[in-house]
Amino acid sequence: MYRLLILLFSLALAGCMSQFQQPSDQPSERYDGIWEVKFTFPLGQLGRFDCTKDEWYALIFVEDGVVGLPAVGPFLGRVDPDGKLLARFPAGEYTTIYLSKGVVDLVFDAVLEEYAGEGKAMLALHDTEQGCIGSAHYRRLDTKALLKRPYALEKTMTYRRGPYRTESAIFKSMPILSNHGSDFVLELPFSLPPCYGFWSKSAESDKKGRWSAYCGRQVTASGTWLYDGDRFEAQGIDSYGNNTVFSGRL
Q1: 29-68: pLDDT as tens digits
Q2: Does domain 143-249 have CATH number 2.40.128.120?
Q3: Cβ neighbours of residue 71 closer than 8 Å, sequence gap 6 or more
Q4: Among 3, 122, 176, 222, which one is most buried in terms of CB atoms within 10 A?
């Protein structure tokens, strides 16, 4: 009887234990910067949300040990002095088997070293650890090298954020029409740090989609873009609620 109780108690504890590592409460600046994450999931389903073997791509940023996503903002996770990273981001909706709507999260769990890291990614039901789990590979990006990188597309655009006056900015990316998505750099005027981001196309058209960027100092921005004729325009909102627009002829 006692053995049975001990076994049941042990199983209960195992069920409560998280499958994700927990970083210490002390975040570390050692891993600050922009990280590229490539991750895959085994084929399966989460409700009616399909997991896929296709490779996914994301840019995350770390500032003062705090992890953020350009499309969402900071304060979504942390990295400790040993490189343990745990972050959870909202990733959209899915339809349950009962045809009701649910929310799905994207969870990153990794150990970072100076320039790279390995770990796992999970598409999970909101606030749970149930979902599709796969592998993730992390690469720290050299922001100075990104600025010097010979992008195929480099154009001067107008840039406006909130109530501030319109200025010129340099937009660097892979060509819009011949790619499904690309990272990009937006070099801003004066002493403002550049924005690093990613744009992707919508399922309906090759000439519109979404973009998101990290602009330093925990400022993020995201929105939609449209390519009409030879004119490109991206509109969005930054993490302070300011309207953000950059546009020009490509």
Answers
A1: 899 888 888 888 776 655 555 666 667 778 888 888 988 8
A2: yes
A3: 210, 212, 220, 222
A4: 122
